[in-house]
Design brief:
With 622 residues, the protein is mainly beta. The chain contains seven helices and 32 strands. The chain has five domains: 98 residues, Roll (Ubiquitin-like (UB roll)); 74 residues, membrane protein fhac (Ubiquitin-like (UB roll), Roll), CATH 3.10.20.310; 73 residues, membrane protein fhac (Ubiquitin-like (UB roll), Roll); 82 residues, no CATH class; 240 residues, membrane protein fhac: a member of the omp85/tpsb transporter family (Porin). It has an 18-stranded antiparallel sheet that branches. A four-stranded mixed sheet has the order 5-9-7-8, with helices on one face. It has a three-stranded mixed sheet with strand order 10-12-11, covered by helices on one side. Helix 2 packs antiparallel against helix 4. The two termini are 17 Å apart. The N terminus is likely disordered.
Length: 622
């Protein structure tokens, strides 16, 4: 399947005057009036001499130089060129320090003159590009000599902060160590911790630097008065409660970070900043202020996908993110699929739904959800008309652990390998998730484990049955730059109950195939089959995936992968029919997660089955 997630990539669309649009850093529909005009434009030609064959250092210098990055753009006036050159020298020296080159020098000539010898208001020849020369003499790379932590940092181990004698003395490492020392001291509930001294003394005779970092931790203090500013329609008391920065709770930078992230995920604020006071209150607590800016609460958008087997699909939605003033969300959505795959309007797939969510319904760590959905779907295995009503609640036990439970009532009219049947099923879905991933859309370490159960009673056939599913995915990135990530996933499920498979709705039986399970096969193509080669679905499944995510550049990555799975008619998987698919994917990094494009082929396809699959989306496949 090939999908174009227009709504996700472009974001919600709001009514308003047409504007230039920026997508992935590129501007579209921009008029000439919107382009930046440069007064008294002065062009220049650049000769850049980095003074090194070290590719890492050369690239760092070239990237640091604005003269190099902007050499196709004119500057404003002769003085503007001089100011740009002086700024460039500072930037280049900083880049040298970042690579431990503390003895390096930077010389910049404009029209043959050193910038230090130019008058305050220089004048260069008109009518021609001004020659600019940048010469860098990097000097040797310095290493760390003595490293001393003093004051309240005296008991800390320098090696923990990557400051060890003989290591390359990059300035970024020294700065990062000081920042982390402050964080570690603050995690001891000391909000006023600070660095009081950070000295770096270079010995040019030995090409070493001696580092001294002194810290003052300050007193232990709990969270004090918590105020909220910037709200317009959102209840500030709700913001205060939902942050979970309770008065009297031990102060912790990690708790503050999580509180800000928790408020951002409500999607009602365009920005969230939590500011601590610079001194303690008279009662010895640390006051805090949550500063928010509300975003647009009403939105609508669209999406679409194209499939080689299912034609064109279109989706649209409208939503409100702050229905009653406490971040309650309401979303109405609908879709039409299989356009072009069939000319019969009655043969298209349709779905519509209303979804409601109320954060903090049963305390700050809870969310109540309710939904009503209707669909007409026609995958290869069955044709179904369904209406489902559901309600439930999720609870955050810890930042990594969540549980949810609810109630569901579903009516389905289904034509499948067992004929035409109708079902009315009541269910109680239960789920536990533990998620330690460092990034939900592009993880490089950690894992996610899930287990759920769905006890059910089919009312018309008076049949009890239950489904149980579990899955786990894990991620490992050797090295510190995360340019090579191993990712793996395992999943399994079992259906218990029902005398016959036909007693269980086809929408509850197990199938595999498609972008979410075994790529290379079409959606739900992997299934046990009857004597007429019709998919029946199964009572159990096992599937697994393995990916190698390789970053070619900072934005482009390739991902070779292999998926495999088996669906069985018995409650215990018999692995009598294992289907596997393999392929390669392309990733393009964006601020909201990688855009994914995967191509896969089945390694043992069904007779007359899918030859290949193309899948697209936002975020990694798992």
């Amino acid at each position: 399947m090939f999908a174009l997630a227009a709504s996700t990539a472009l974001g919600p669309i709001f009514a308003g005057q047409a504007q230039a649009i920026r997508i992935f850093g590129m501007r579209f529909f921009e008029s000439a009036e919107e382009q930046v005009q440069v007064l008294d434009p002065v062009n220049y030609t650049l000769t850049f001499e980095p003074g090194t064959d070290d590719e890492e250092l050369r690239e760092a210098l070239e990237n640091a130089s604005q003269l190099n990055q902007d050499q196709e753009k004119p500057v404003s006036g002769d003085l503007g060129l001089l100011i740009k050159a002086r700024d460039d020298r500072e930037r280049l020296l900083a880049a040298l320090y970042e690579k431990a080159r503390y003895g390096g020098t930077v010389t910049i000539l404009i029209n043959g003159q050193d910038i230090d010898s130019l008058p305050p208001d220089p004048s260069f020849p008109d009518g021609q590009a001004v020659p600019v020369t940048v010469r860098v003499a990097p000097g040797p790379a310095f290493t760390l000599g003595s490293v001393r932590f003093e004051g309240d940092a005296a008991g800390l181990d320098a090696a923990t902060y990557d400051l060890t004698r003989g290591a390359r003395a990059d300035s970024t490492l020294i700065i990062k160590a000081g920042e982390q020392i402050v964080v570690d001291l603050k995690e001891q509930s000391r909000p006023l911790a600070k660095i009081t001294e950070r000295s770096v003394v270079a010995d040019h005779a030995t090409s070493t630097v001696d580092v001294t970092i002194r810290a003052e931790s300050g007193p232990v203090a709990p969270v004090g008065a918590l105020t909220v500013t910037g709200t317009r329609t959102v209840d500030p008391n709700f913001v205060r409660d939902y942050s979970r920065l309770n008065h009297g709770r031990p102060y912790s930078p990690e708790n503050i970070r999580k509180a800000a992230e928790r408020l951002r995920t409500l999607n009602v604020f365009s920005s969230v900043t939590i500011v601590e006071a610079d001194q303690l209150a008279p009662d010895g607590t640390i006051p805090m202020n949550i500063q928010v800016s509300e975003g647009k609460h009403r939105y609508f958008g669209f999406g679409g996908q194209v499939s080689t087997t299912d034609g064109l699909g279109l989706q649209g939605y409208w939503g409100h993110r702050n229905l009653f003033g406490r971040a309650e969300s309401l979303r109405i959505e609908g879709s039409v699929d299989r356009i072009g795959e069939t000319t019969d309007v009655g043969g298209l797939d349709y779905s519509a739904g209303i979804l409601f969510a109320k954060p903090g319904a049963f305390g700050p760590a809870s969310t109540f959800t309710a939904s009503l959905k209707a669909a007409i779907v026609d995958p290869d295995a069955y044709n179904a008309k369904t209406i489902t009503a559901a309600a439930g609640a999720g609870f955050e036990l810890t930042p990594e652990d969540t549980v949810s439970l609810g109630a569901e009532l579903s009516w389905a009219d289904i034509d499948d390998a067992f004929g035409s049947n109708s079902y009315l099923t009541a269910a109680i879905p239960l789920e536990y998730v533990r998620d330690t991933r460092d990034d939900k859309l592009n993880p490089t370490e950690g894992y996610r484990a899930m287990i759920n159960a769905k006890p059910s009673y089919e009312i018309e056939g008076q049949t009890f049955f239950s489904s149980f599913e579990t899955s786990a995915s894990a991620y490992y990135a050797p090295g510190s730059e995360n340019r090579f990530v191993l990712a793996g996933k395992l999943g399994a499920g079992v259906l218990i109950g029902g005398d016959e498979l036909s007693d269980i709705p086809a929408t509850r039986r197990f199938f595999l195939g498609g972008g979410g399970s075994v790529r290379g096969y079409s959606f739900q193509e992997i299934s046990p089959r009857n004597d007429d080669n019709e998919e029946t679905g199964g009572r159990s499944y096992v599937n697994g995936s393995l990916e190698v995510r390789i970053a070619v550049t900072d934005t482009i990555g390739i991902v070779p992968f292999i998926d495999a799975g088996s669906v069985s008619t018995s409650t215990a998987p018999d692995f009598s029919d294992i289907r596997a698919g393999a392929g390669i994917g392309l990733r393009y990094a964006t601020p909201f997660g990688p855009i994914r494009l995967d191509f896969a082929v089945p390694l043992n396809k069904y007779p007359g089955g899918t030859e290949y699959g193309i899948y697209a989306g936002i975020g990694q496949s798992f």
